[in-house]
Hints:
The chain is α+β, with helices and mostly antiparallel strands. The chain has 2 domains: 1-30; 32-139, Chitinase A, domain 3. The chain has helices spanning 6-29, 90-96; strands at residues 33-38, 52-61, 67-70, 78-81, 104-109, 129-139. Strands 1, 2, 3, 4, 5 and 6 form a 6-stranded antiparallel sheet that branches.
Amino acid sequence: MQRPSCAAAGVAVCAAVCLALLVCAATVDAKVQAVVLEKPDSCPRTARKGDHLELYYSVEIEETGQLLDDNFDFRYPQKIELGKFTTVPKGLHVGLTGMCEGEKRKITVPPKLAYGVRGEGQVPGNVHLVYIARLDTIIRHGDEL
C-alpha cells in the first residue's frame, strides 16, 4: 500500500479550506442589508407578513448605478402584500419587514434574493439591487379601508 505524499495531503487541505471559504462567502452574500435613513418619532406598529404596504421607492443596480425604477414623484404609492412574492424580489420583502410607517431605508438585496444568475427583464443576472424605500402606509387585515 502506497502512503500519500505530503504534497497530496497539502492539496486536500487547501481544497477543503477553499471550499469552506466559498461556502462562507455565499452565506454572507445571501444576506439583505437594511440601513435606516429616516425613522418617525413614534412607531405604533411595524410591517409584518400579510400586511398590505403602500410605499415609495427607487431601485438601482449596485454594480453599475443604473436606475431601474423610481416612483417617488408619482402621485400614488406602489402597493404590495408583504410575504407574497409576485411583483418584487423576496429580498425587498425581507428589508421591508419591521419598518414603521414613515420610515425610510436603504435596502441592498443580493442576487440570490433578487433575480439570481439569470436576471429578469432589464435586470442582468448576478447583480445586487439597491432600494431606497419609504413606507407610507401599513394596512393590516381587519383595518377599515
